[in-house]
Amino acid sequence: MTVSADFHIAGRPIGADHSPYIIAELSGNHNGDLDRALALVDAAASTGADAVKLQTYTADTITIDADAPEFRISGGLWDGRSLYELYQEASTPWDWHAALFKRAEEHGLHCFSSPFDHTAVDFLEGLNAPAYKIASFELVDTPLIRKAAGTGKPLIMSTGIANYAEIEEALKAARAGGAECVALLHCISAYPAKPEEMRLQTIEALAAAFGVTVGLSDHTLGSAVTVASIARGATIIEKHLTLARSDGGPDADFSLEPQEFKQLVDDARMAHAAMGAPRYDRAGVGGSNAQFRRSLYVVDDVAAGAELTPENVRSIRPGHGLAPKHYDTVLGRTAGRDLKRGEALTWDMLG
Fold it and tell me: How far, in whole angstroms, is CA 321 from its chain's centroid?
């Protein structure tokens, strides 16, 4: 089962022929402060990103307040914390959303979100969200996928902890819900993720298996993995943004600061520009510098009728004469006219 690889958000085409679409994920890096959240939108605009993304949930819509061991995190960045208290801290208040959408619009940025339940989709529709993102851990929630797909908006889905069968089920749910514009993001759901765990060849494998636009949700530090993913065909990049890691917060440790994020944007766009289609004609390979390749030149005066020898013909730069492969052929031939030192050798100069 495949979904069309043609993908766009709010009229912006996304694909191999276009500069990568870069999303600044704000997540919980607002640290509970609306002014900081607005400053993050400003910072995202300054980096050259295409979009900012929120997460729309409350602790009560994503989990329950329970003391059982399975509701508590063991190991990693959030070791010992309960899901409920973590999501209370990290959630973006719903009454902030309108202000954040408006600030993004003022900057010419797209703003959309990851809904975590059906009420969040309805709420975001009221804000005219231009797209929806299904988070890795929600990819198995096919009713939620159908709900988001039913809006008719483009749908981006992270594949972090899903196998191929689950990805196919998610895509079927998206199609059943009415989605025509679907993309997948390869993702390693570790925070932070290690570069050696990223398996970037999965990007090409996903595109081949499912026929959709594919990108990367990158939780590694720095921008090297993002740049490498462009060479593997990633056309959408999602990365967490913070004002300063030293300010703390639930996602700070695997987020980029604004100048780092700007470097990522610049590097990703440069990597895409460097890809290009293969060309093996002279202009494609060497451009104007092809003139400085070696060719055959007269290097000593030769009288008309005199023999061409290694002493008066050599392969040198620049490249305006006969190709060096003709060297053995012209040796022993005679000059058809007086030849001057420094002349590019051509066939009509031979007797």
Answer: 45
Mapped onto helix, strand or coil, the DSSP state of residue 126 is helix
Pair 238, 23: CB distance under 8 Å: yes
CA distance 2 to 221: 33
Look at residue 286 in the predicted model and tell me its pLDDT.
59
In this prediction, residue 282 carries a pLDDT of 57
Tokens of 196: 């050696």
Residue 124 lies in a domain: yes
Residue-range definition of the domain harbouring residue 289:
284-349
CATH assignment of the domain containing 102: 3.20.20.70
Q: Is 236 helix (H, G, I), strand (E, B) or coil?
A: strand
1 inside domain: no
- The contacts found for 98-107 with CB under 8 angstroms, 24 or more apart, are 98/127, 99/34, 99/38, 100/26, 100/37, 100/38, 100/41, 100/52, 100/54, 101/127, 101/129, 103/38, 103/41, 103/42, 104/41, 104/44, 104/45, 104/51, 104/52, 107/41, 107/42, 107/44, 107/45
Sign of the dihedral defined by the CA atoms of residues 13, 19, 21, 26, in that order? negative
Q: Based on the fold, state whether residues 226 and 344 are members of the same structural domain.
A: no
How far apart (Å, rounded) are the C-alpha atoms in residues 216 and 213?
A: 11
The span from the CA of 169 to the CA of 175, in Å, is 10
Quote the number of domains for the chain: 2
**What pLDDT digit, counting tens, does each position of 9-51 carry?**
999 999 999 999 999 999 999 999 999 999 999 999 999 999 9
User: 339 has which bridge partners?
Assistant: 302
Helices (H) and strands (E) in the chain, counts: 12, 12
Which pTM does this prediction carry? 0.86
Pick out the chain residues at pLDDT < 50.
1-4
